[in-house]
Design goal:
The structure is a homodimer of 193-residue chains. Chain A has 193 residues and is an alpha/beta fold. Helices cover 42% and strands 18% of the residues of chain A. In chain A, the strands form 2 sheets. A 7-stranded parallel beta sheet of chain A has the order 5-4-1-8-6-9-7, with helices on both faces. Chain A has a two-stranded antiparallel ribbon with strand order 2-3.
């Protein structure tokens, strides 16, 4: 099984008009994605943001829930928040994983848009089970990962689809659903479809 | 197919010690769950909160994204936020659905805890497709729906499980995963498991 990490990318991502921008850290992104990562057995969660001024925001959240007032009241949040790392860039997250695992991770991108060579969740699920190299799953904030990030990925997952044409899930919801599709257990095996 | 609604319940829910409490409305709960509900084709999303002072919070969010400054910048949020309704109680949400659909809804509860007679997602998925009555899916804030709500439900879904023992997903993540398990399309059919 591939030791799997996720990264929430604040740069380079697109804005509404398709320009590359840097987005800001959102408090609940740190919490929600840490809790989903912990539930589905990920080895770490990187908040990828190049702006130095944003790092204390994340570090303050980590500190509050690791050593501060949060520990006694919500011990399960301490456990989840222990997965969170700050990285200045995707490259820095890759270097961190290489340092921990001894090998560079396979990069798996996500997108709300269709494109050529998108892989299915079933394929990636099988791949993760066969793979010994680590994997880094990348999620974009704003209007999604820049095309140059997707091009640099080893694989890009198909968009999450419901029965409607609406494809504007929050990134927190998209991460939760993606992890459930890749790592969800038990109930999945009852699914007759 | 059953016209399906969801309700985010702020009362009666449990706190950490198992006492019944009322929780407060969280801005991102309104947005994230509206976007997930819209993606998976729900007919409406009830924010269930008995405290009058909390209603303007939700109404202000609805107004901002329906007619205010939000419409031009984020038209897709307007579409999602159109599903949101405020209800004082679960009973009021039921009455609202009965008024719209002509029949009272089947109540389906959710819980992060196991219990007797939990149904699988596969069973509920099949049921929703066979059912003509409307369905109301209930999600608890805080530490989950009060046992008396679960007892009043026609069915309660099994807890969402990953490969770990950690069962502290955010309610936003739990709603997203539940809707994907019940209404997710296409990719699901590729799943070999």
């Amino acid at each position: 099984m591939s030791p799997t990490y996720c990264g929430l990318v604040h740069y380079p991502v697109l804005d509404r008009s398709g320009d590359e921008v840097t987005t800001s850290v959102t408090n609940l992104d740190v919490h929600d994605i840490a809790r989903s990562s912990r539930t589905y057995g990920l080895c770490g969660y990187f908040v990828v943001n190049p702006i130095d001024a944003q790092h204390p925001v994340v570090e303050k959240i980590i500190e509050h829930w690791s050593t501060g007032a949060g520990v006694k009241r919500f011990p399960e949040r301490t456990e989840a928040i222990g997965l969170v790392r700050v990285a200045r860039s995707i490259e820095q997250a890759i270097a961190d994983i290489r340092h921990r695992e001894g090998t560079s991770p396979r990069l798996v991108g996500t997108s709300a848009r269709n494109g050529v060579d998108r892989i299915s969740y079933a394929e990636e699920r099988a791949r993760l089970r066969a793979e010994t190299r680590p994997t880094l799953l990348l999620f974009g904030t704003g209007h999604g990962l820049s095309p140059r990030v997707l091009q640099a990925c080893d694989a890009v997952l198909a968009p999450i689809e419901g029965p409607t044409e609406f494809n504007h899930l929050s990134v927190r919801a998209a991460v939760a659903i993606t992890l459930d599709r890749l790592f969800g257990t038990k109930e999945r095996s009852n699914n007759p479809i």
